[in-house]
Amino acid sequence: MGIFKLIIRRLLLGVATLFVVSIAVFLLTNVLGDPVKRMLGRGALPDVVTARRAELNLDEPIVNRYFTWLKGLLTGEPGVSYTNGTPVWELLSDRVKNSLFLMALSSAISIPLSLFIGGYTALRRDGWADRVMSNQLLVLAAMPEFVVGAFLTVIFATNIWHIVPAVSRIRPGESPWSDLDGMILPVATLVLAVTPHVGRTMRAAMIEVLESDYVEMARLKGLPERSVLWRHAFPNALGPTLQVIALNIAYLAGGVVIVESLFNFRGLGIALRDAIPEANAPVVQFIAMFIATIYVISNLMADLFTIIVTPRLRTRLQ
Question: What's the predicted TM-score (pTM) here?
Answer without folding.
Answer: 0.79
